[in-house]
């Protein structure tokens, strides 16, 4: 299936072409999200996460900010949903099952809730884990569930939240 990008046409059934289209969409969405978080609206979203009851005292509507955040999340989900049929060539009713939604939540929690890069790292970790453990046993979901529970219990900020302070301390030269 050809994807017309204006300046070039990429075939989605070619693995390299589909990878480049997906990578371009991920980089674009990441850049837009990072930019958005540096705007006043992004600061409102961060304030909502920190303490929703105080945001109205700053002069912002929590309802409007949440509505815009949900719409933006729906746009990202729609783009993801549009990529899947290009990858597989069809859409199965199996995608409506709980495990599809749970995979998204597990990805974010493992990577690090509240960070942009956490979802990317969580996605890579979950994909590699499914591939490696899934090739050894058909019960790979048990391993993923155990990892999820371990992260929730022992690393509430996710792997990125656990690693970031240590890496920053290492880069500053203060190894402890």
Write the layout of secondary structure elements.
Elements (H helix, E strand, L loop, with lengths): L1 E3 L4 E3 L3 H23 L2 H11 L11 H27 L9 H14 L4 H21 L3 H15 L3 H15 L4
Q: What would your notes on this structure say?
A:
- By secondary structure, the protein is mainly alpha-helical.
- The protein is 72% helix and 3% strand.
- It is built from seven helices and two strands, in the order ββααααααα.
- The protein has helices at 15-37, 40-50, 62-88, 98-111, 116-136, 140-154, 158-172; strands at 2-4, 9-11.
- The protein has a two-stranded antiparallel ribbon with strand order 1-2.
- Strand 1 (2-4) and strand 2 form a beta hairpin.
- Helix 4 (98-111) crosses helix 5 (116-136).
- The longest helix is centred in the middle third of the chain and has 27 residues, at 62-88.
- The radius of gyration is 19 Å and the shape is globular.
- The N and C termini lie far apart (54 Å).
- 9% of the residues are buried.
- The model has no long low-confidence stretch (mean pLDDT 87).
């Amino acid at each position: 299936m050809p994807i017309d990008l204006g300046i070039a046409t990429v075939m989605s059934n070619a693995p390299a072409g589909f990878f480049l289209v997906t990578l371009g969409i991920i980089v674009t969405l990441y850049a837009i999200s990072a930019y958005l978080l540096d705007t006043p609206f992004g600061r409102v979203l961060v304030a909502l996460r920190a303490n929703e009851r105080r945001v109205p005292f700053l002069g912002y509507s929590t309802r409007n900010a949440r509505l815009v955040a949900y719409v933006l999340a729906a746009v990202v989900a729609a783009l993801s949903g549009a990529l899947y049929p290009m990858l597989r060539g069809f859409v199965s009713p199996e995608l409506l099952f709980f495990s599809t939604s749970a995979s998204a939540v597990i990805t974010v929690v493992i990577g690090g809730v509240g960070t942009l890069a956490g979802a990317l790292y969580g996605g890579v970790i979950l994909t590699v884990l499914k591939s490696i453990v899934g090739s050894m046993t058909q019960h790979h979901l048990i391993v993923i569930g155990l990892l999820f529970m371990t992260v929730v219990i022992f690393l509430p900020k996710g792997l990125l939240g656990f690693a970031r302070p240590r890496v920053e301390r290492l880069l500053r030269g203060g190894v402890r």
